[in-house]
Amino acid sequence: MPSKFKLLLDSGKFIMTSEIGPPKGTNIEKMHHHIDILKDKVDAINVTDHQSSVMRFPSIGGCLAIEERGGEPILQMTCRDRNRLALQAELLFAYVRGVRNVLCLTGDAVPVGDHKEAKGVFDLDSVQLLRAIQTMESGKDLGGNDLDGNVEFCAGAIVTPEANPIEPQLIKFEKKIEAGAEFFQTQAVYDLDKFTRFMQFARRFPVKVLAGIVLLSSAKMAKYMTENVPGIFVPQHLIDELANAPKGTALNKGIEIAGRMVATLKKEAICDGVHIMAIGKEEVVPDILTAAGI
Amino acid sequence: MKSITKQKSFNEVMQQLHDFSRIFIAGCGTCTTLTRTGGIEEVAAMKEQLQSQGKLVTGSVVIPVACDDITAALAQENNSSIQSSQAILVMSCALGVHRMSQNVINKPVFPALDTLFIGMDDGQGLFHEVCAQCGQCVLGEMAGVCPITACHKGLLNGPCGGTNNGKCEVDKERDCAWTLIYNRLKDQNRLDTMRKYQPPKNYQVLPRPRAIKVL
């Protein structure tokens, strides 16, 4: 049976997803609070998988909490920490526990995180992980053995529409689609003209694309991301807009900018939905939706 | 092909030799001479340093090729200084340490160097890792750029999201392997090769411990 999220993707509705980051430790109250804020406001909630290679409570644990609290989870799965046995085992567990949406990622490099001496696994890459899901859905594991009990997932992937050079990204985008990706959540986009050009390419394929919206909380943060985060470019006019906001209101301006982008993407039907990343400020996601007129 | 090494800190060398006061030193005339980690000058410097810390150096040798069986002959030739030592400090890559351990089985053998990678030099003293000896060479399909060694994550199906203006997320000075592969395949009019799905690698081509008999 297709997941709730898959049915929504196929319905043609403008999709809204958001994400939460699990805690570093066993205090899961804040994570539960974020889930409760988001679960009725968005169509599905991603749970990050040791984002930025920082060790945390696991993604699958966050997904189970979303399930228990009545939301629709998207399990983020990176290839950084598990070999092909562990990845398949987790997919079996996820399926049995009702987690049916999986976002397949390569994963950040180990040295950018907080366990710099750890071994990066990368036994599979993101394309191979997508294929692994296809293989498991056909009733086999990667060793060619029969599975006792089927799995069925809605598999997704990511793409960076503003990567430079863009062509290798587009080739990988196509490979991910051939490997079974049904939806894409993009890296943050701010330049909607550039993104529209990317969508002209993406529209040639039978996949749904949700534009990544990362909340800008200050001019400083926007500049930092442009200078340091691969594939993110905040145009100068947005940085100026944040810098010119009256003191203490930069976050409100960031909410307004994000809301404006969501509204434009929806109104002009540029893509199939949005994926809102508030990075620690999950409680303002409903405000972004309000600002977008949703 | 060069075995690329770096010297352990002198503190670590001293910790290894803590229980021993009489030391024999062996260097190598090939790779560690080239990388200036275990040639004639470095062996002499190590001798001086050890002596300044109160160790007695019973003798030293720079073996022309420490990984070769010439080590056996030189161990024999230096047998009296070796036997009057309590431990042997080897300033070659790990292959030379192995050779020495095989030849002098009654003495503890300690590495003075850490072996980093098999490298190729650019003629200007810069050594690059170009082969991880994975047992499944894909260089033909990757236009001569190995994604196992040149990509931090060893990705086979294209760049990750960490690629940034042709550089790697791990180090802004390092080229993104997949940008290099893309550019070369494009120049060769072979981009279809990049579109081909690369299946997961076989990590058991030759299961560890690896050995192969050719004669």
Structural summary, described in words:
The complex is a heterodimer of chains A (294) and B (215). Chain A contains 11 helices and 8 strands. An 8-stranded parallel β-barrel of chain A has the order 1-2-3-4-5-6-7-8, surrounded by 6 helices. The model of chain A has no long low-confidence stretch (mean pLDDT 97). Chain A has a single domain, classed as TIM Barrel (Alpha-Beta Barrel). With 294 residues, chain A is of the alpha/beta class. The model of chain B has no long low-confidence stretch (mean pLDDT 96). The longest helix of chain B is centred in the N-terminal third of the chain and has 13 residues, at 40-52. In chain B, a hairpin with a 5-residue loop joins strand 6 and strand 7 (127-129). By secondary structure, chain B is α/β, with parallel strands linked by helices. The two termini of chain B are 23 Å apart. Chain B has 2 domains: 2-117, Rossmann fold, CATH 3.40.50; 130-200, no CATH class. In chain B, 31% of the residues lie in helices and 19% in strands. The chains are: A alpha/beta (294), B alpha/beta (215). Chains A and B meet through helix 5 and helix 6 of A and helix 8 and helix 9 of B.
State the gist of this model.
The complex is a heterodimer of chains A (294) and B (215). Chain A is built from eleven helices and eight strands. Chain A has helices at residues 4-11, 29-38, 59-68, 84-96, 126-137, 167-178, 192-202, 219-228, 236-243, 250-267, 285-291; strands at 15-20, 44-47, 73-78, 101-105, 154-159, 183-188, 208-214, 273-277.
Q: Give the number of DSSP strands of chain B.
A: 7
Query: For the largest interface in this structure, which chains are involved and how many residues does each contribute?
Result: A-B, 36 and 31 residues
Shape, per Cα inertia axes of chain B: elongated
Q: CATH topology of the largest domain in chain B, which one?
A: Rossmann fold
Helix percent of chain A reads: 40-55%
**Assembly type of the shown chains?**
heterodimer
Order of helices and strands of chain A: HEHEHEHEHEHEHEHHHEH
Number of helical regions of chain A? 11
Main sheet makeup of chain A:
8 strands, parallel, barrel
Level-2 CATH architecture of chain A: Alpha-Beta Barrel
**What count of domains describes the coordinates of chain B?**
2
Strands across the major sheet of chain B, in which order?
3-2-4-5
